[in-house]
Amino acid sequence: MSDSASKPRPQFRNLSISQILSYRLPLAGKSSILHRASGALLFLCLPLVILPLFALSVTSPDSFAAMKAYTANPACKVVLLVLLWGYLHHFCAGIRYLTLDLHIGNDKITAQKSAGIVFGVSLALTIVFGLKLFGAW
C-alpha cells in the first residue's frame, strides 16, 4: 500500500500564512483560486485602467494618438498583458465551470484534465496575444 493511502488526511486544515505556499493543492484547486483572483483583478482594474484608456481612445483623434503613445511604453504593455491573461484565464475557467454545472466532467480525472486544459489554453492565448501586443507580427 502506498504512503498516501495509509496516512489519513486531517479533517480540519487550519493553515497559517506561512503554510499556504507549501500546501499541495490539486490542479483543479489552483485553477479555482486563480479564477477568483483573475476575477478580482479584472473587477479592480476596470475603473482604474480599462475605462480610462477606453475613454481616452474615443474622445478625439488627438486623444487616441496620446493613448497609443502611452500604451507603446513596455511597462504599460506588461500591465496590459497581465490584464489580458486575467481575462483569458477567467473566460476559459468560466467555460470549465459552466460545463461542471451541467455535470460534464465531474469525476476526478476529467476535472484534473479540464483544469490542465484551462491553464494550457489560457497561457497559449496569452502568448499569442502577447506576441501581437509586443509587435512580433
What does this structure look like?
By secondary structure, this protein is an all-alpha fold. The chain has a single domain (26-134), classed as 3 helical TM bundles of succinate and fumarate reductases, CATH 1.20.1300.10. It has six helices and no strands. α3 runs antiparallel to α4 (61-70), α3 (27-59) packs parallel to α6 (108-133) and α5 runs antiparallel to α6 (108-133). The longest helix is centred in the N-terminal third of the chain and has 33 residues, at 27-59. The model has no long low-confidence stretch (mean pLDDT 89).
Question: What topology does this entry show?
Answer:
Layout: H1 3-6, H2 17-20, H3 27-59, H4 61-70, H5 74-101, H6 108-133
Family: Belongs to the cytochrome b560 family.
InterPro entries: SQR/QFR_C/D, Succ_DH_cytb556, SuccDH_FuR_B_TM-su
Keywords: Heme, Iron, Membrane, Metal-binding, Transmembrane, Transmembrane helix
Pick out its properties.
137 residues, mainly alpha, 3 helical TM bundles of succinate and fumarate reductases, 6 helices, 77% helix, elongated
- In total, the number of strands is 0
Taking pLDDT < 50 over at least 5 consecutive residues as the criterion, the unreliable ranges are none
**Straight-line N-to-C gap:** 54 Å
Major sheet details: none
Q: Please tell me the overall pLDDT.
A: 89
**Beta fraction:** under 5%
